[in-house]
UniProtKB/TrEMBL annotation:
Keywords: Cell inner membrane, Cell membrane, Membrane, Transmembrane, Transmembrane helix, Transport. It comes from Labedella endophytica. This is Transport permease protein. It is found in: Cell inner membrane; Cell membrane. The lineage of its organism: Bacteria, Bacillati, Actinomycetota, Actinomycetes, Micrococcales. Residues 31-264 form the ABC transmembrane type-2 domain. Signal peptide: none annotated. Pfam families: ABC2_membrane.
Amino acid sequence: MTYLSELFASRELFYNLTMRDVKGKYRRTVLGQLWSLINPLATMLVYTLVFSFIFRARPSVGDPSGLDIYALWLMTGLLPWMFFTRVVTGAMTSVIGSAGLIKKVYFPRMHLPFSVAGSVGYTWAIEMAVLTIALTVFGGMPLIWVPVALFFMLMLTFFALGLGMLLAIGNVYFRDLQHFTTIALQMWMYLTPIIYPLSLVENQAATHGQWILDVYRLNPMERFVSVFRELLYDNRWPDLSDSLVCIAWTVVMFTLGFLVFKRSEKRLAELL
């Protein structure tokens, strides 16, 4: 409890670090915060062109929303994934990136990865607001499901933070880890049903064996993406098993990351 009290007592530092990241991200750019919308929109256009028009990917119609727009279906999975990767990679490099500050003064080092999540969450809120408006305009009813989506977004935040804190400590000892992580996240994305529907994997499992789907669904991000799609695109309660798996992964990953980071942070100054 002493460490948690220390974190809470220095919450102003968390706020200042978060705002530093928010303000510094697009400093001296002409479009400023608009880049937080342009980047996912550009990604959406590329994936929509390639997978919807060229490869003819056709996800099922939203049930019961009735939505049948690939771009919106894509974004309900892509935005949580982009949030996840930004938090993980940002948290992983937050310690090394603040080496000078760590060597000069003591403060709870955990504020570094936490502030990354805060600044990424600020950007995500803008993106999600635009997506909610678009879903509503095209006939969906996402507003009533936003509170539930925010709860699972909080779960995703702690899951990403737990993994990010583990990688942050590992990155101090093994600097190549950040490059391996970049490659791993690229592979992870294509192993998650973001740009293609889960039904494609289910069809392959029906042909080649149920074990394919069982192994595939061990991926925690597959569960998170399914939950967000069911809430925002389908407009219905997510599958209970998916919800419980998301919560379980969050508890395990954040607890592990928190304990490892807390145990290692006192030596960070000398290791850096």
